[in-house]
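Regression test attached.
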Amino acid sequence: DAGVIQSPRHEVTEMGQEVTLRCKPISGHNSLFWYRQTMMRGLELLIYFNNNVPIDDSGMPEDRFSAKMPNASFSTLKIQPSEPRDSAVYFCASSLRQGSGANVLTFGAGSRLTVL
Amino acid sequence: DQQVKQNSPSLSVQEGRISILNCDYTNSMFDYFLWYKKYPAEGPTFLISISSIKDKNEDGRFTVFLNKSAKHLSLHIVPSQPGDSAVYFCAARNQAGTALIFGKGTTLSVSS
């Protein structure tokens, strides 16, 4: 398996521009997560989906952020308009939710976003 | 307020010695705890987990201990190796949910 695939790996943009981050989860996984890593806040959950349905988006910072999962093999995280404080590494992760058990998440390599 | 706390941002250990990474939590509804390791420019990778009904889980050089009364868990690495140098994240799962809540991480440096 190729693992969780994220693109782009690096994105540099100017304030006010739209940014779209993409994620392909592991085939067969039914849960998908978006996390953001910053020095100040560590790894924080933004939103997660079960069976393509958003379950908890309480971590999404504000209306400038939106996430979609149109099918089981693709998700996007969009920031519009972007601001310098959005600069961070954004991780996508997926898991196979089976009720009980540790629910191990498999992470992608991340997308490093820099907003100038 | 952070529900999962890793109060030591960094830890330095000599090769061959024991590394002990600590984690505290506040939510008594957590039913699983996990440790992840992260190298630079890579995503976190799963290391070891423990159920809230256990107090110890061991996998090779890695052992996780859970003290529910103190709401504290620790990861022991014995013996430590230079390749263990990475950021270690403690994570917890709420039994009502699916997502993991992470601490801020501890950077472990193992010198040879």
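Expected vs. actual: identical. The longest strand of chain A covers residues 42-50.
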